[in-house]
Write a structure and sequence with these properties.
Helices cover 54% and strands 15% of the residues. The protein is an alpha+beta fold. Residues 37-59 are annotated as: Disordered. Residues 37-58 have a biased composition (Polar residues).
Length: 79
């Protein structure tokens, strides 16, 4: 299950890149969330240029987002 979570997170970051044109880095918080019994959360920070939409590449990005979303659905449903 942890392997699937990591795959889903990676795919999600790729979708964010396609939407924003920015790279993202995931930073896992240490113990404090685990001590309270809460589910651990990740902090996402951005790197790269400011937000810009790539209108000329939009349709290919849209198709790639659909494909990546289908991969997430497959991982969640176990197919």
């Amino acid at each position: 299950m942890e392997k699937d979570r990591n795959k889903i997170l990676g795919i999600t970051l790729e979708i964010l890149y396609l939407l924003t044109g920015e790279d993202y880095l995931v930073v896992k918080k240490s113990g404090e969330d685990q001590i309270s019994g809460a589910q651990s959360r990740a902090q996402i920070t951005t790197t790269g240029p400011p937000l810009s939409f790539m209108s000329t590449e939009r349709s290919s990005s849209d198709q790639k987002i659909v494909e990546l979303t289908n991969k997430i659905i497959d991982l969640l449903t176990g197919e």
